[in-house]
What does this fold into?
Amino acid sequence: MSHGMKTLHNGSSFDRAELPLLDNDSFFQTIPDAIAGGWRVCSYFGVPAAGGAVLYCLMASKERGSLGIISTNVGRSFPSLAASCPQLHLFEREIAEQCLVRPEGHPWLKPVRFQQPLCQGQGFWHDSDGGGLLPSVMDYYRVEGDEVHEVAVGPVHAGIIEPGHFRFQCHGEEVFHLEISLGFQHRGIERALIGAPTHRTMHLMETIAGDTTIGHGQAYCMNMESLGGVYSPPRAETVRGIALELERLANHTGDLGAIAGDVGYLPTASFCGRIRGDFLNMTALLCGSRFGRGLLRPGGLGYDCETDIAGEILKRLESVRVDLTGAVSLLWNTQSVMARLESTGPVKESDAREIGLVGPAARACGMNRDVRRDHPFGIFRMSQIPVITATSCDVYARALVRWLEMERSLDFIVEQLGHLPRGGGYCNRPKGVAANRCAVALTEGWRGEICHLALTDELGRFERYKITDPSFHNWSGLALSLRNQQISDFPLCNKSFNLSYCGFDL
Amino acid sequence: MTNIIIHTFLALLMPPLLLGVIAKTKAAFGGRVGAPFLQPYYDILRLLHKGSVFSTTTTWVFRAGPIVALATTAVAALLMPFGAHPAPISFSGDMILYAYLFALGRFFTMAAALDTGSSFEGMGSAREATYSCLAEPTLFFALITLSRLSGSYSLSQMLANVTPGAWLYAGASLLLLIGGMFIVLLVENCRIPFDDPNTHLELTMIHEVMVLDHSGPAFGIIQYAAALKLFVLGAFFIHLALPFATGNAYLDWGVFIASMLLLAVVIGVVESVMARLRLVRIPQLLVAATILAAFSTLLIIR
It folds into this structure.
């Protein structure tokens, strides 16, 4: 059943005239029906219109391997579905903040990024002199009682991490509730993309989340290629896949090292810190930037991958693999480390499914979802990577899933580098952007599903370019993992999710 | 007289070196070169040259915290015999003073932390109070055992009585004792597996979180006092574990210094090969330490 949605495959585009514009009743009935039928929400957003907004909902079905999209016109308010479909709660708050339409009956209606609305008018939340709110200025959930106390952490932290504000409601060392308030990194990327693309757009995409340059870059390139009617050459697709997996390897290595560091286990922390640099340097071999900036360009690559570079990466991978295996095995073989990781920060599988976790955090809860297999794109249409899941849902599971994924990624890179496709160049630049189209691209970044959705106007400019970073789905998971846990385990849980602040704040 | 001068000299100058040795050992396990051995001295000097910031919500208690902590530890250093040499100050019952000098220092550190009104520091104080309560019985069982062995209430005589010969007839008791005292040594000095002195994560800290608001010279004093505490408690532990005496005064000082450096390496190795305990597990290990020490007392009294 496609529930009256326009279905499409990942990385394709279609004429906006084909986009179903449902009436309100069927729109707000279709979403819960589809979720009950096994679909999940990838993105749900609004475009401000006169007197209200147009809401778009993009959903994905693993069984069908396809995506579905619907839209509807709403006035100054719309019925909230968050109570029955918790995975929508943050999307609805975002719509309220950006489009000034109120989700009626939302159980937790608070600002998301403390940003100014995308349209004229005053936001629902504003301070007394009519300006916007400063980040984290809002009413927090409070637990009252004699021995209950509140601990506020951030936005300034002791470590070199991004700013975010965390409120813990504690009873002694036990956490009853954690509320997370972000928005400090809001840069107005979505607003800047209205009327794009320009020559700057690719650079903006590469900095949505600096550690996911390839993941976001690839999604944007896919959209530009489907809107420009070109295919990137096979060689480019292969190198993009390699770069995506190198990015995954570098970040997962860093995460395992950080998890080891948080429990005070130095050998793995030090070695992983060094090995992360080795992976970043391999990406630098491809394009001169350790984070992969400039490697991806709409239509293909910014730089070709010469044979000697491929050989050099293969050679380095061999020794790095040995070091990495040694460093990570130390982690699994040290009793005191396992005692810290096991049954710390669990998220029940049913909860994870309801709030719509993605990426390694979801796979650690036994949810078998991976865009590379469910909605294959680029090289992953030809060459599959097995999906890894774990069942214990705790910090250990999230660490284990990362390590097993890294092993698969290493195999994949070695296999692909061994026979890079020849001929056909490395870039087919798209000539322009088709007008009145809707393009959708999903990629599996190292944090999970990245969703880019482009709506072009009659001149071929973006009327709206909606970006959904995996962190947007997963922050609620971190809050849930702290329920009834020790407050001293928070840094460990946080590292095991390692979510992006700037990817969320956009 | 020479011994008293050497004693004071060592107590004043050597403690930060232990931290340097620990850091170097950990770096070696992590495959790194690590900071120079003298880095802790540079750090303390750097802090002493800085200005101080005091929150307007704090009172004199906040400023007294570091000073009392250093003063109590320094007096404890004078009560503690180093190696085969007796302590500069020694009298019957000084073991009680020794134990409660640390308690007094800790009380002021906790009071200074509470004085800031910060929720972090309150959490740190609560943890410190809990764990030090649980560590105290171990120390007292150790002192009872030693005073029973020697028939004295003075630290110098109690510890001088622990010789390789004593290990022959009270070996089982002393073995249990060093097990318990090693745990106390680690927990009192906030080392892994109980606390991680290098972490930057406020929510997991115990000792470090209590001194978050101290800056500049006050923080330098705190770091120096922490090093001195490690040195003094380490000297106690060395007496039990490595009770060697050559009879030559200068050679004995050499043996003492070498033993202390060895102890620092051992602490570094322990910190490298294991992770921190979950906070809820720490009391269990501290109770285990108390039981070890209690059985050591039982074995002596029987």
About this structure: Chain A is about 40% helix and 20% strand. Chain A has two domains: 1-112, 189-497.
